[in-house]
Fold this protein.
Amino acid sequence: MDTSQPRRGIVVGVDGSDSAVDAARWAACIARRLGEPVELVHAHPHSSDSTTEPAEAVLSAAENAARAVVDGVEITRSTPSGRPDRVLTEMSHTARMVVLGHTTTTEWESMIKRSDVVSIANHAECPVVTWRSVDGFRVPDSRPVVVGVDGTELSAAAVEHSYALAAALEAPLIAVHTWTEQSTLTYGEGSRFRDWTDYVEFRRNEMTEHMAGHAEKHPDVEVTYRVERGKPDIVLQEESKTAQLVVVGSHGRSPLAAAVVGSSSQGLIHHSRCPVMVCRTPAHDRTAERERSDEQ
């Protein structure tokens, strides 16, 4: 029997930046829809009286901004001592989600110096949202939620959370599966040089089956299934231009490993045009997935 406590609350890391304030606004709007409390967190490396006043000012600015866009949400504040990435990763063990501003490092810089956003997304035990926008803050609306689907355990959590958010926001859901010629070898060598219509239909049907359980749970969510040719990070970046949220799974690779083998989540963390939710595959699921791969 599972005796673990249900995850609850939206934790928002605030550091005084404009994007962190917008992250707090967004988190409050989502919390209102989900019926969750919000905890604003300003972590600092050392505990001292000199940090108290600046921390309170940062938290007050974020709280005032959040309350200005939505009411009826329980908001608390805390100033724990410790490195922000470690503090927020620890808090992710019991939170429903962690929300952050956007990273200030490039993909290259993330490989050679620490990015708290990338570190938390790679290690958190709950979904992590990095708030991004090219148009400034917008209240969640009827724009679609987009989820990347590859049919494996990697995207299972992403699908689950994307459905829940689309339902809460009363927004349509767009499920996107991407492919390249190299990724279709298991479908048949000959198919690489023929009409791709059958292959696209095969993948679309596979997506429908993969997501059927969630569709039954959230029958009011309008779902569109898309099978697009191209690299997942590039295709999803394009989708982010008209979406209000992009949801993806992640192996939790380091920035260096991601640069070597590729990472859709880290590409979106740096380049998406809208907020990105990264749902890291739990450790036990990653182990099971590796074991299944070894058996094949």
